[in-house]
Design a protein that fits this description.
By secondary structure, this protein is an alpha+beta fold. The protein contains 13 helices and six strands. Helix 5 packs across helix 6, helix 7 runs antiparallel to helix 12 and helix 8 packs across helix 12.
Length: 489
């Protein structure tokens, strides 16, 4: 119903009413602006209340979920250990006297770019054989070891192993059991590798040993057949032959020197060496010397009688007969001493060897004897040299063949000894294919549960609530933004 035109206008409200209308007008003005529509939106305080209620419900929900996760989730405990692999290799060398050298070298486990021992060990830690051994040690089933986590760090030899269990003592025991099972299986794998190598080496050693026995038998048979035991024996014979040849030359030189000296002294005393020797033999005999003196006295007596008597005088005839008997006795004694007949013993008996001439005569005889001894020694050496040279010539091809057989036998022994040494050195290197895994961090009993975590629950609740708030904010801003964009377009 319309007011009459004559009605007076209403009185202005008092100051408080005017203030309230001013606030409502300001609110309307702000709400109608773009920023006001975005912040305040449409719908008034009721919309604010609805959205605050939605935010409170979201906060309660996410807080409840986080609390339920932390309070209701089962407690899990983590234990583990850390392994490291050495990065350097190893080597061994064995010197075999008069045979050679056996060398065994193991390269670093990380020398090959295509093979990674850490990956191999990771697979072994997660393998059924290791888990089965560990489960058997704890008297549990192997499926309970499904929570094994192995982490490798790039460019390092470190291996991190972690196990998750529902009890701290069980986690600690499981970690120790897994470590022991891992080491035990490593030892088994190494032993299996060594056994396989031993079998292969021993098969090859059997062939090498047969070769050594065959070459040894060939050497023994050849030695027995030809009488030559070793090359040293042949070398000794050659050396003896050379020494005999040198000794023969020295002996011949000495015999020539002695003969020359004897000849010069013989020329000095005007007696040949043979005559001088016979004179000394005869003059050295007391009987011959007595006969010579008696013969000289008889000759002097005959000369004296010839001045006084005629040839038929009895004294002259008696002395002449006596002289003839002495000559005959002298010849007989000389022939007995010299061992020759028909030689002029009387002439030898008349040779003067008194004084210095006798000394020279003895020197001639002594030098002559030494020269003759040297010549006899030279003849003996010559015979020995001829026999040795013939022996050397006969043994030359035999020695060459024996040397070849001995070399074959030595080569066979060297190969056999090297293979045997290689077998020993390979057994000493047990970390060739499976390198040493050192325990860097031993298993430890967990001090507290690893899950559920307060931090994770709080962060999850905060993150979820934050995303929830972002969604609510988008719902809050959707109509003002759409209207503002519509007006702009």
């Amino acid at each position: 119903m319309k007011r009459p035109l004559t009605q007076n206008p209403p009185e202005p409200p008092p100051y408080p009413r005017k203030s309230a209308m001013t606030r409502e007008a300001a609110y309307e003005t702000a709400r109608k602006s773009l920023l006001g529509r975005i912040i305040i939106g449409s719908g008034g305080p009721r919309r604010w209340f609805r959205y605050m209620l939605v935010l409170m419900i979201g906060a309660l929900f996410f807080g409840s979920v986080a609390a339920a996760y932390y309070l209701l989730s089962p407690r899990t405990y983590v234990s583990g250990f850390t392994l490291t692999l050495p990065g350097s290799g190893a080597g061994a060398s064995v010197n075999l006297t008069d045979l050679g050298q056996a060398t065994s070298a193991t390269s670093s486990a990380f020398s090959s770019a295509s093979l990674s021992p850490t990956e191999n060990y990771k697979r072994l830690l997660q393998s059924d054989r290791v888990r089965g051994t560990a489960a058997e040690a704890l008297n549990v089933q192997s499926r309970e070891f499904a929570g094994i986590r192995v982490r490798l760090v790039d460019q390092t030899p470190l291996i991190y192993v972690r196990l998750t269990e529902s009890d701290p003592d069980l986690a600690y025991a499981s970690a120790n059991a897994l470590l022991a099972a891992f080491q035990a299986n490593l030892d088994e794998l190494r032993q299996e590798e060594l056994d396989a190598r031993d079998q292969a080496y021993r098969q090859s050693l059997a062939g090498y040993e047969l070769n050594v026995a065959a070459t040894r038998q060939a050497v023994i048979a050849y030695q027995a057949e030809n009488g030559l035991i070793s090359i040293d024996q042949y070398q000794t014979l050659v050396t003896q032959t050379d020494e005999l040849e040198r000794t023969l030359e020295e002996t011949l030189d000495r015999a020539r020197a002695l003969g020359n000296r004897s000849s010069r002294l013989g020329e000095l005393i005007e007696l040949p060496e043979e005559v001088a020797a016979r004179v000394l033999i005869l003059r050295g005999d007391q009987v011959f010397e007595t006969l010579r003196e008696q013969l000289a006295e008889s000759a002097a007596q005959i000369a004296s009688f010839q001045q006084m008597y005629g040839p038929n005088h009895p004294d002259m005839r008696a002395e002449t007969e006596r002289h003839a008997g002495l000559v005959e006795a002298l010849n007989s004694r000389g022939e007995a001493l010299l061992g020759v007949a028909g030689y002029g013993m009387l002439h030898l008996a008349e040779i003067n060897i008194d004084g210095e001439r006798a000394e020279l005569l003895r020197q001639v005889v002594d030098l002559s004897a030494q020269a003759e001894g040297a010549r006899a020694e030279a003849r003996s050496l010559q015979d020995r040299l001829l026999r040795n040279e013939q022996r050397v010539e006969d043994l030359a091809p035999i020695a060459a063949r024996l040397d070849s057989l001995l070399r074959e036998h030595q080569v066979a022994e060297t190969v056999f000894a090297s293979a045997l040494a290689r077998l020993d050195t390979s057994r000493a290197d047990v970390f060739a294919s499976y390198p040493l895994a050192q325990l860097l961090e031993p298993p430890a009993r967990p001090e507290g549960p690893s899950s559920p975590s307060k931090k994770i629950a709080a962060l999850a609740a905060f993150g979820g609530f934050f995303l929830y708030c972002m969604g609510v904010l988008l719902l809050w801003l959707r109509l003002p933004l759409i209207r503002a964009l519509w007006k702009i377009i």
